[in-house]
Amino acid sequence: MKRLKKLFDRSKTIKSRMILKSIFAGFFVMYAVSCSNEEFAESESEVQDTSIQDTAISVKTITAGEIYKIKGVQSDKYLEVSAYSHQNGANIQIWSDNNAASQQWEVLSVGDGIFRFKNVESGKCLDVERYSTENGGNIHQWEYRGTTNQQWTLVDDGSGIYGIINVNSGKGLDVENRSSTDGANVQQWNYYGTTNQSWVFEEVDDNVSTGSGTPMEAFDEFNPDSVTISFDGDDITIESTGLPNHTSPYWEDTNPLYIEPVVATRLTPGRIGGDRSYVLTVSAEPEIAASSTATGLGPIGISVSGVPIFNDQEGNNRPIEEMIVETFDYAGAHNGPSGYHYHVESSDVPENTVLSNNDEKLVGIMADGFLLYGRKCNSVGDYPTDLDASGGHISSTQHGDHEFYHYHIINEIYIGSSIVLFGQDYQGTPSSLM
User: Fold this and answer.
1) Judging by beta carbons within 10 Å of its beta carbon (0-12, 13-18, 19+), is residue 252 exposed, middle or buried?
2) Is the pTM of this model over 0.85?
3) Which CA distances in Å does 85 have to 101, 102, 175, 183, 293?
4) Other CB atoms closer than 10 Å to residue 362's CB: what's the count?
5) Which of the following CATH numbers is that of domain 6-203: 3.40.50.10420, 2.80.10.50, 2.60.120.480, 3.30.930.10?
6) Fewest Cβ atoms nearer than 10 Å: which of 244, 274, 331, 368?
7) Contact 71/199 with Cβ under 8 angstroms?
8) Closest by alpha carbon to 41, among 203, 196, 268, 235?
C-alpha cells in the first residue's frame, strides 16, 4: 500500500468552528451526557470546555497514509468493521484486539486538517449513515465518495488521546451506552470528551500481515498417499483419491485398515474404494467476498486425509438426524452414493490417531480456498472467541507467524454429541470441487 508519508504539523490548528455543532455554548460547564450514557455527567471533568472562542486545537504527529488501530479509552477495545465485512453499510463496532485487518485503519488526509479513515480489510471508509446530523446517528462503512459525512477532524487533549469529530454533523465518535462489551455499537453524539468518546491511535507495524495468503507449510499436513498438491502461479490444485489413511469399518474387511465398528451402530451400504477423484483449484491468496455463499450438497472441501468434507445436510432440505449420526464411524464419516465422506468431527477414541478432536489440528481446505482447523486455535491455545458467522477469523496458526483468514470447527453441539465440521456459508468465493 502506498504510504503518503505526510505528517500532521504539531502546530496545525483547526478552528473550533469545526466542532461548534457538537458543543453547547455558555458561561458554565453543563451537566449533560449523550444518549449513549443515558445519565447526567457526574463531574465537570467529564464535559469539554464549551467556550466558543476561536481556540486553536493542536494535533500531535500522526503520519498520513500510515495504518493504525483505534482503541477506545473507556473500553480498551478497538474500532472495527463487523464480521470482516466488505459490504457497503456494514456496521462499525468495538471488539477485543484480534490483529485482524478489519481493526486496522489507514488515515488519509483530505486537506485543511480533515481526514478520512479507510478500513484495511474492506477498503471502505468510516461513514455516518444517511448523512445524519442527529445524536445517535449510526456509524457504518461505505465506499469513499468525498462527502463530509465521511470526513473527520481530530481533537487532541494533549496526551495522545483524541476525539474524532464528523465534519458534516460536528458530532463525536461515541460508543453507545458507554459499553465495554465486544460488539458494542458505535454512533455519533454531541462531543463532551468523555472516555467513551476518546480514542488512542496505535500504529500498525509494517510487518504485521493484513490477513492474506495461505501458508504453504499447511499442505505438508495432507496425506501424500491420497492427495497431490501442485502449484501454478497463484493457483493451488488439490487432487485426491478420497482414500483415508486411518481405520474404519467402511473399508473392505480384507483391507489392513478395516476394523469392527467402535462408534457406528449400523452402516450405510457400500465400502471405501473405487476409482474416485476429487479436484479443487483455489487461489494461494483467497479473499473474503462481498457476500457469503451457501454450501451445497456434495463435497465442499478436501480433508488432510484426502476424504471429502460434506456440510450438515444429508439431502435436499434434510439436515443430519440421529438416525444418520448412528451410521458415522469414529472419523465422523459414512458411505454414500458419492463415496466415503466426513460430516462431523471425529470421536475421542483410542482408534483415532490421525484426525482432529477438540484441538487445533488442520482439518482440510474448503472450496473457497480457506483452511479449516479444529475447534481450538494455536494463536491463543484455546477456543477462539472472535469467530465470525462462518467460524472464521484472522490469526497466526501452527503453520508459522503469518496471520491469515481461516475457519475453525465451531464449538457447538449439532445433534446428540456430534459437532459439524462446516455447516455455515463460505465467506470466500467457492471454486468447483469435482
Assistant:
1) exposed
2) no
3) 11, 8, 20, 14, 13
4) 23
5) 2.80.10.50
6) 274
7) yes
8) 196
> Distance of CA 351 to CAs 325, 339, 355, 418, Å?
18, 22, 10, 17
Residue pLDDT, tens place only, 187-234: 999 999 999 999 999 998 654 443 557 888 899 999 999 999 998 878
Q: Are residues 291 and 368 in contact, defined by beta-carbon separation less than 8 angstroms?
A: no
Q: Which amino acid is at 203?
A: E
Q: What is the pLDDT of residues 110-124, one digit of tens each?
A: 888 899 999 988 889
Please report, to the nearest 10 degrees, the dihedral formed by the alpha carbons of residues 230, 235, 236, 240 taken in order: -80
Domain with CATH 2.80.10.50 in the chain: 6-203
Q: Is the pLDDT of residue 358 over 90?
A: yes
The Cα-based distances of 223 to 81, 239, 434 in angstroms read: 38, 11, 19
Residue 33 has pLDDT above 80, yes or no: no
The C-alpha angle 110, 56, 45, rounded to 5 degrees, equals 110
Picking from 210, 156, 174, 178, the residue whose alpha carbon sits closest to that of residue 79 is 174
